[in-house]
Structures are given as C-alpha cells and as structure tokens.
Amino acid sequence: MSSAAKTPKVPLAGRTAVITGAASGIGRAVAIRLAGMGCPLALADHNGEGLEETADLVGVPVTIKQLDVRDRGAMMAWAAEVAEWAPAPIGLVFNNAGVTAIQSIAEGSPEDDEWVTEINFGGVVNGVRAFLPILLEQNSGAIVNTSSVFGLVGMPNQSAYCASKFAVRGYTDSLRQELRGTGVSAANVHPGGIKTDIVANARFHSDPRGRYETKDEMTASFAEMAQTTPERAAEVIVDGVERGRARILIGADARVFDILARVTPSRYYDVLERGQALIERAQDRRRARG
Ligand SMILES: NC(=O)c1ccc[n+]([C@@H]2O[C@H](COP(=O)([O-])OP(=O)(O)OC[C@H]3O[C@@H](n4cnc5c(N)ncnc54)[C@H](O)[C@@H]3O)[C@@H](O)[C@H]2O)c1
Any residues with Cβ below 6 Å from ligand 1, and which? Predict the structure, then answer.
C-alpha cells in the first residue's frame, strides 16, 4: 500500500464513485479497484450488457444506468438519481467514456468527427455540469476527466480525437482554477497505450502511414503496442487522485509523449514516427518468426 493511501489528500475509500464508460476497459478497471476500497458505485455506459457484467464483478452496492453521455438531459436526470441513491458522499466523478475515429481531415467523414467530439468532449462537459453542483454542495470530491496522450500532442488521422482530448484538458484546467478555495478538485488523466477495446470500437477509415488496410489489422497492432493493462491504469488513476495530482500520466509511453511535447513542441512527430517505425519492424520480425 502506498503512503498516499494512508493519508490521502482526496479520500476515496468508502466514498461513492461515479464512472462513465464503465462497461469496459479503463472504466471497468477503475470500478473494480474502487470496489476493493469499499466504494459504492454509480456506473453508466451506453453498453447495457457490459455494464451488467461490470456490476456482477464488483461485490459492493452498485447502481447502473444505460445512457449516452451526449444526452445532457439523461446525464442531469442520472445525477439526481445518484444523489438520491448514494449510500456515502461522492468521492470521485470519473468522466471517462470515449471513442475514436481514424481518418484524415481531407477525406474523413464529418459525422464521425462529430461523433468523437460530442462523446469525448461533450460527454465530459455534461458529466461536469450534472455532478459539480452535488460536489460543491458537499464541498468535497474530485472530478476526474479522461484526456489522453493525444491531448498533449497532435497526431495524423486522429484530428477529432486529439481536438476533443485537448479540449478536455483545457476545460479541466479551467475548472480546476475555478475550484480554488473549495473542497472540490479537478484532474486530467492522460493514458498512453492501454490494452482495451478503444481501437476495436473505433470508426476506421485510413491509417496515416498506409500500413493497415482494415480495422482488424490496426486493432491487432495496437494490442501488441499498448504496454499498460487497464488494471495498472486503474491503480495509477486512483493513486494519483488520492495524492491530489492535477495531471495523471499513465505508462512510460505517456511520459515520453509529455517530454517530447515540451522539449520539441513543433517537431515531436518526427521523433514519434521514427519510434513507431522501429516498433512496427520489431512486430514484423516477431510475426515472421511465427
Ligand atoms: N486505451 C487507450 O490506449 C487510451 C489511451 C488514451 C485515452 N484513452 C481514453 O480512455 C477512455 C476509456 O477508453 P478505453 O480505452 O477504456 O476504451 P473502451 O472502448 O474499452 O471503453 C470505452 C467505454 O466508453 C463507452 N462509451 C462509448 N461511447 C459512449 C457514449 N456515447 N455514452 C456512454 N458510454 C459510451 C463504451 O461503451 C466503452 O464501455 C476513453 O476516453 C479513451 O479515449 C484510452
């Protein structure tokens, strides 16, 4: 157990946790980790089946809601229900639901850009609007919003995703300043590659380097490249929130992205592209060896 867990700046143990995108991946892993700390859980996702699976795994008081985070009315109504239900004050609101589309700006679908920005940024804004009044009323708790390493650097064929994740970062930083002097905090999470269904659930049009023809190929490559498990991501997130961190980087790759964005803010992609080519050559060699 870390020393931060003994004297947390933001106590989470035993407090109610609110999580969107809880049907899979990082959201599910955070739910399971917080359940281990005795937190009652209010979980939402648009995937009802996945939500029920998560609820079956946690073994603590849990309420689940199938909703679309883009629907502000549904998010406001859910927050009212959670406030009524919560067996303990809310310790954490984790606005985490997200998607991506892999497409160029010149040839991409505007509808898929909107899908990404409305879920990733609009969903976070709806979550903050819905739950912030409850946290301010109790004068405690953390709003934790999932950005990405792609909220630190711009990447080709990820324009809407990067824009949405930069927006989450800016919005959360603004929120944090507004919360100074209150008992409520706000943090950004910047995961590197985490082994989840994010690419499998993506809308795929074209890989920027013309390497992958299909989403299945890209999903397989991502599964090999992503270094961090959702369980490890959950551990880093919960520890970072308890320590009162404003920005929580997950994985060695996230730290590399962060450093590159600062050291070479206009040339980072040159370095990243070379690194990616090296990793892909290693993947090819592994496949050739069978
Ligand atoms: N996996 C990674 O490498 C990685 C890296 C950086 C950031 N992230 C971010 O982490 C967050 C969690 O993603 P993940 O990696 O666990 O992927 P995931 O696909 O396993 O989980 C995303 C969850 O969001 C839900 N969701 C999608 N659209 C929704 C909507 N409109 N309303 C409600 N729920 C919706 C999905 O059903 C799913 O359960 C996302 O915001 C993602 O952008 C992931």
Answer: 20-21, 23-27, 45-47, 50, 68-70, 96-99, 119-120, 146, 148, 191, 193-194, 196-198, 201, 226
